[in-house]
Amino acid sequence: MEIHRYEKLWFAAALLLIVAFIGTIAYGSVVAGISMVDDDGGTIDSDNVREHPAFEETGLREAEDSDSDYEASVIAMQWFFDGASPLEVPANHEITFYVTSPDVIHGFQIVDTNVNAMVIPGQISEFTVEFDEPGEYGLLCNEFCGAGHENMAGQIVVVPEDQWDDDALEAVDGGEN
Ligand code: CUA
Q1: pLDDT digits (tens, 9 = 90+) for 31-44
Q2: Ligand 1 binding pocket, CB closer than 6 Å
Q3: Which residues lie below 8 Å from residue 76, measured CB to CB, with a gap of 6+?
């Protein structure tokens, strides 16, 4: 059977595309460290999120429940991020985030990172992040959540390790917020 030259070229091109697509998935899961948020975070009563131990206080704290160095609780709600406006975290430390919503579905996307989670009422989205690059990162909601959706934004400030002071953390914890 004779295969025409152009046909062979198209075969080769199609094969190359398939290999490239598989390659991007492999790259995402292995090199870029992309993973799905699963149901590890557990469920929560969305009418009483602040009665859950993880959300009595929002913001950063030293780790209690996870193997990370720090934990951060954020309540994504119409239309702001309680605990992340802004949230200061140290660079080069593992931080486990707990994010939930008391009202509707929101998004939790940290610009210029691969952090992008959906926040569902009744569920806790749990994921661990380590920031290598100090700087100010925008935090966006990427799920349409009502009239104030476009303005729903927060900020993550990643402080260089040598400028980080855990005492400041204690002071905030001991304060009246
Ligand atoms: Cu919250 Cu859009």
Answers
A1: 776 776 677 788 89
A2: 79, 106, 141, 143-145, 149, 152
A3: 82, 99, 100, 101, 106, 107, 108, 119, 141, 152
